[in-house]
Design goal:
homotetramer; mainly beta; four-stranded mixed β-sheet; 46% strand; four-stranded antiparallel β-sheet
């Protein structure tokens, strides 16, 4: 199954991140834009495409997400605001699962397997 | 959907970990034992149970897994061998997704959401 | 410089973890026991030893640490309580730096280099 | 001690990353550029500055680093090439320690404490 899947977990609180704005970009174009759903998934039909080899970028609006949460102390200048995660697709027939784990103070993004 | 799910990714090579031996234990008993499947999932019927609140342990046989892989240099005494990951279940009605990311030199285990 | 160093960061809040109880164990013995200092380091003279090859265990009292912090919501049964991190020392002349990153909902422990 | 420190660990092999090209940027300017040293540190005098509040960017040339290592299989289009890690400095008097853990297939970047 080709395509990309993106799953966001707020590991500071052990919950999936709901309603975080995410975009998928390529070569200056926004391929998909929306918010993570109740399961933390960025569920967008454009992600099921067969992507040409090349460089892509997932963009996560972490600062806005945490500023909407209650009882999460944040500094005046947030440590993380809009996170750009660039990754390369080499084989269009593979699936690229991109789990994204974050706190207000960092993130972890390792390919989750084909 | 109550229960536990366990997914293992070998982030040193960007692939799901296939055939890694895993156990789920509680109070001195092995509740489930088996190997991760072709998707990196520890797919065992006992994991769909409704678990009583308390302390549980997932055990990952990382050393044996890496010793079977080709072209992965390992020291004579492996850095990781059998990893014990203890976690508490507080609410039996919640799902506990446990993504587990490893290399021969460490691991990351954050609850992946309800 | 042989030996082991242990550094704990609370990545849910972007701070070093101060006052977390830590132990280093080997073959049923406690080699060192104490609390992380103001820099998040487990600073104990026994860690500067030249360790024989074999299996060691660092133990982190995460549950007690978070229960003392203010404004950190925790479930009745904490997800993490006492974390056991087993690692192997293969070359006694190498240094084993063990950075430990945690939230109440998971941790990351990759060897930080020789 | 104000300033920024950057430490890179190749967690796929349990070693510090030596010779990885790194830059620190702010507002369109390169504040510091160089390669990580034998300890994996990006040791540059500009990092000891007192930085004004605002948005900064650390840039890591991961693709070039791994393409120079032996026995690391990489796809034709590397999954990671040049990684941009944007972070905000809110309090110029604090120290921002930025440990960066990577494999060819992902990275983890959580603030390592003040």
């Amino acid at each position: 199954m080709p395509g990309v899947s993106i799953h966001v977990v707020d590991v500071s609180r052990g919950v999936v991140a709901i309603g975080m704005q995410v975009e998928l970009r390529h070569a200056g174009h926004v391929l998909a834009s929306g918010a993570t759903n109740a399961k933390g998934l960025f569920d967008h039909p454009a992600l099921a495409a067969t992507f040409a080899p090349g460089s892509y970028e997932a963009v996560f609006h972490i600062g806005a997400y945490y500023s909407r949460q209650k009882n999460v102390p944040l500094p005046e200048v947030p440590f993380l605001d809009i996170v750009h995660y660039r990754f390369g697709i080499s084989d269009p027939q593979q699936h690229y699962h991109l789990p994204f784990k974050c706190t207000p103070w960092g993130y972890s993004c390792f390919r989750g397997g084909a």
